[in-house]
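Re: weekly structure request thread

Next one in the queue (400 aa):
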Amino acid sequence: MIGKGKSISHGVAALEYDLAKEINGQAVATEIARHELYGCTGAEMVQEMKPYHIDFPNVKNNCLRFEVSPSIEESATFTDADWAELGNDFMQRMGLANHQYIIIRHSGTESKKEQAHLHILANRVSLSGELYRDNWIGKKATEAANAIAKERNFVQSQDIGKVNKAEIKEAMDGVLKKMQGFDFTKFKEELGKRGFKVREARASTGKLNGYYVTARSGTEYKASEIGKGYTLAHIERTQSKLKCNSMNISHGNKLTPGSGSSNVKQGQYSPRKRKDTTPRVNPQLAVELVYQELKRVEVYTKRIEDATARKVQIDGKSLESAENRLKNVLADFERQGYRMKNGGYVDKRISFYSILCAVISLLFACFMCYLWTDAAKDRDNYKQYYEYYQEQAREQKGNK
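Done, posted below.
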């Protein structure tokens, strides 16, 4: 039995895919069990998880996704209740029983229609508000699957992994031997014809950094997990070695007994023949080796050109860091908006003081208006005396 797990940020997309999975136009997804989720669609269920994410605005990967896959023989007699028991047991061993989650069974895969397996999407934050640590979560999922397999006498995931890697290595060797020089596109197509899916791993600049190979059982492996010689940096050298070995065997560069004739009679002295130390040269092999060296020089030249061009390009990591900071700011605004909506920022004491200050300000304004009106009335009352005083002053000035 195989168990895989990882933390993701695209919870809605993953859950919608799991619920609507089809193979050749036929639905293969069946909901087996759920815990503390009540929505009908993937978007509704992930929306139910969001209130628990408010206290962790900087956590990008807030969902957990798992895949539990027993072998075809082990799950042949499973009922829906057996699948539900298996999924709940797995979540219990992962320490996620107190989290929101949903378990979905797929009745098969694109390559193996009878390979039933479980997909589980869980909230990374528990119902009590604790964040689940996702360190080595893939290894934890494997250990949980192995514990269940051992308890139920299933096949261990390590044994399945060895078989899968051996099948992939054998297929890759066969493709490399037949190819005239290494071409990744053709390599990918040939493996696909043999039932192995290849997924490219590219950088933000579009450069191919590596690749993954999916076994016929549906498990994906890095090229380095198959062997160091199958990574992009060493695969051409591996191809050269495979071709050299196959050519040596095909051309029969072996010493066979009885290949020479001897006319020396028994008892007659015969000088010992000197061993021929001149190396045998296979023309076809020499041409192939020269061609491989030219291809290797061409690859190294292209790598140098890429490295030179990369100096004038925008640093992808800086852009990604800026994008993450922007997302954190937006998440913080969303969190503050949610708290304001629910009254998280309302303080009754502050509100009372604000109202009291407003009332005092209003009373002061009314008092000032009253003083201004009274002063205006006094001015009108003394206006006639002021005018009489001015007239007397003018008359005195005229008499002088």
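Residues 254-266 have pLDDT under 50 and may be disordered. The beta strands are 2-8, 22-23, 26-27, 29-35, 63-69, 101-106, 117-123, 197-202, 208-214, 220-222.
Next request, please.
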